[in-house]
Amino acid sequence: MTTRVGVWVCTPGVDPVELARQEGECREHATWMGWEVHGVYQDGACPPWASDPPGLRALLADLCDGLFHGVLIARPELMPQHPQVHGDLLAATSRPGRFLAFANPPEGLTLRAVQLPYRGGVVRGRG
Question: Which pLDDT tens digit goes with each residue over 102-127?
Fold first, then answer.
């Protein structure tokens, strides 16, 4: 079974170069992990305190519909910091068979009880 991910890229300002760079990082990471990218969801010019970005809404709807298994984000420090965004993302990816991953996490980001699908198996560890 192929693990599919939805990629969410976002920037606080209008910056198509940054969006393309994030998409490239996510595609490279997905290939390295043995995952297939289902689609890329963009929120460019997304204010830091946006509570309902349209790209995230579309991504979460497709995740709930079962079109892919996990969400891959390149730069979590650039995503909106509104608690609703974080809560919705964590709630959707905490369900059985779902996951949240970062292609390029910032220094100091730690994950606990990580279980990511990886080339026919599961990577287990603590970060």
Answer: 988 777 655 443 444 544 454 444 33
Residue type, 96: P
Q: How far is the CA of 70 from the CAs of 16, 28, 89, 91, 94, in angstroms?
A: 24, 16, 10, 12, 10
Phi, psi for residue 96 in degrees, rounded to 5: -55, 135
Q: Which amino acid is at 70?
A: G
- In whole angstroms, what separates CA 111 from the centre of its chain? 14
63-99 pLDDT per residue, tens: 999 999 999 999 888 889 888 998 899 999 999 999 9
Strand ranges in the chain using DSSP code E only, listed in sequence order: 4-10, 36-43, 70-73, 99-102, 114-118, 121-125
Return d(Cα 26, Cα 24) in angstroms, integer: 5
* pLDDT tens-digit series, residues 20-33: 999 999 999 999 99
